[in-house]
Amino acid sequence: SGIITIDPGYKNTGSCESAITYLDGEEGILRYRGYSIEDLAEKADFLEVCYLLIFGELPNKEQLHKFHEDIKAQSIVAEDMKKILDGFPQSAHPMGVLSSLTSALVAFNASSVNVSSEEEMYKAIVKILAKFPVLVAWAHRKKEGLPLEYGDDSLGYVENIVKMMFKKPNKEYKKNPIVINALDKLLILHADHEQNCSTSTVRIVGSSHAGLFASLSAGISALWGPLHGGANQAVIEMLEGIKNDGGDTKKYMAKAKDKNDPFRLMGFGHRVYKNFDPRARIIKKAADEVLGDLGVEDPVLDIAKGLEKEALEDQYFVDRKLYPNVDFYSGIIYRALGIPTEMFTVMFALGRLPGWIAQWREMRLRKEPIGRPRQVYIGENLRPFLDIDKR
Ligand code: CMC
């Protein structure tokens, strides 16, 4: 009943009240639970940020220790899950593999489905924080043709992920602090971003009381698209395309501005940040450090630098307030770290996991009603049925 206003893309529709992430697109402010993203990226590690987002406060030492121990106790993924992984071709996109395996986890963890008390929620949350990195590492190793690897309880949360992803057979795992530090930052910067496409998906699927893992699997699918999380992969593919076409960035700038050409400059523009993306500022600095520290020389990255400069000075981009977003730089770092392009969005999903969990938990604890938008019908009026031989 009442008048329905349509708002395509929900550009001006609030779907919920939330106490998790504060974002001011005009001022370029991003805060998790009241803490600035700049402070968190510099001073916290990813596991602390997970705790903060999900439970609302920074953990003290004992709380963080217990949280990590609880996670480590759940880090084994059912052996039969490997058979599902085996069934995928090596060419499968790791986002598809990750979303399928996350869904499949439901079958092996039935007690995590119908959760409503805080205690049951905690158990499901700890389970997914433990098992998701294993699935990420499996998706990566499948792609690379490497044998599967389990974690090492003596390592930190992010360090363990790096080990599970990259450890080569018959080689000691050697910690690289530059890599761990860059990844920690990237994961923190991606950890939450209020009601974006994948988070809204997690909340709406969860609002039907489908379990946490099923809701997360839907979120992964939403994140996959090139207009959302898939942008980081699309950025590098675009840069490679420009390089292979002779490296003429001006030509591609012209294409991006041509309204008859569907080409968009990937990694530029944002639905809410209309002056700058605060995450992009932090990550640009980290990207410069990582490239310097690792001594990476890469023609694709030179093209990125060129495009960035041209776009920042171009009237079309200035008028529309299109700036490089976080994914313009995250792809560059992932590439420098030797992570294959198809894995970029999986790394985004790994970072976004605590945000999705926090938003799902908040939605359930607030007892929000099932998400069910309305529409304005514009189809045919009532028509008489026509028999098939009269059509
Ligand atoms: N290249 C060229 N023109 C663009 C671009 C771009 N990347 N982005 C927006 N525009 C133009 C657009 O054509 C429109 O022009 P006009 O007003 O003349 O019609 C104007 O800028 C406003 O764009 P919009 O599509 O109405 O903005 P939106 O809020 O619907 O879309 C966006 C935001 C991020 C989907 C879009 O900027 C885009 O497609 N960017 C490239 C993909 C990308 O980098 N996505 C990652 C976003 S950050 C990570 C995440 O949130 O997942």
Structure description:
The protein is 55% helix and 3% strand. With 391 residues, it is mainly alpha-helical. It has two domains: 18-225 and 349-365, Citrate Synthase, domain 1 (Orthogonal Bundle), CATH 1.10.580.10; 231-336, Cytochrome p450-Terp, domain 2, CATH 1.10.230. Helix 6 packs parallel to helix 7 (157-166). The longest helix has 27 residues, at 118-144. It starts with 20 loop residues before the first strand and ends in a 26-residue tail after the last helix. Carboxymethyl coenzyme *A binds next to loops.
Q: State the share of residues found in helices, binned by percent.
A: 55-70%
Quickly give the CATH architecture of the largest domain.
Orthogonal Bundle
Secondary-structure element pattern, one letter each: EEEHHHHHHHHHHHHHHHHH
The hetero molecules present are: carboxymethyl coenzyme *A
Sheet with most strands:
3 strands, antiparallel
Shape: globular
In whole angstroms, the N-to-C terminal distance is 36 Å
Tell me the radius of gyration.
22 Å
**Count of distinct strands:** 3
The proportion of residues in beta strands is under 5%
Mean pLDDT: 93
Number of domains: 2
Please identify the top-level CATH class of the largest domain: Mainly Alpha
The named CATH superfamily of the largest domain? Citrate Synthase, domain 1
**Helix count, DSSP H or I runs of 4 or more residues:** 17
Strand order of the largest sheet: 1-2-3
Low-confidence stretches are none
